Amino acid sequence: MIDYSPGRDKLAPTPMTASQIIEEIKRLDPKEQLGVIRFAYQLDAERHLTGSELSSLAERMVNTTDAVKAARVRETIIRGFYGPRHDA
Predict the structure, then answer these.
(1) Are 54 and 78 in contact (CB under 8 A)?
(2) How far is 60 from 5, CA to CA, in rounded Å?
(3) Staple partner for 61: which of 22, 25, 73, 75, CB 3.0–4.6 Å?
(4) How far apart are CA 49 and CA 25, in angstroms?
(5) Nearest to 1 by CA among 14, 17, 20, 19
(6) Residues near 47 by Cβ (< 8 Å), separated by ≥ 6?
(7) Does residue 82 have a pLDDT over 70?
């Protein structure tokens, strides 16, 4: 959304909150929403986790008794620490 009010640079977008962005995404047609979803997954996959996020995941991994959940959490920790695999 661009604010064309007087005194504003016509090319400068108005800052939007996350809630406003989500509402805009809801208004998109399903095909465009799919593009947003793909982008969000890609962004998440490329993001490095913070120290506290990694610590929290490590705690979840050692406290679970479900081997499948532990493996998923371990994979998330590895991806969050090293970034996405480029050999896959």
Answers:
(1) no
(2) 50
(3) 73
(4) 25
(5) 14
(6) 80
(7) yes
